[in-house]
User: What shape does this take?
Amino acid sequence: MRFTVVIPGFLAEPFFKNSFLKTQPGYYIGWLFFIVFSIIASMLYTLLFRKLRGPWPGMLYGIVWWAVIFCVLAPWFALAPPLQRLGWTSIISEFCLFLLWGLFIGYTAATEYTEDRLREPKEAPV
Assistant: This one.
């Protein structure tokens, strides 16, 4: 639907040419980079914030990653066009994508942590 001009492989931009990332194999490489990034970000969230409950910690986590990637890393490594050139549709689309991504990571980590605690045996009677 072309809500954003940021290509799916923007995280692979430092390692591959932009023209390659716009091809079908480039899309697969881009998705692979995003999957690896998501796994690393999930592990980091689990280590730091797994005890937090509710949707807000995960959503804030996604917003922080959006800010880090688009405001800090994108200008340094040319991952995506600068925010001033992206346009509101792209900015809002990418923001919402990272918001939902963070929500998913947060809920998954919190649910797993809660279920693990419930499966642990209670203290044995003496």
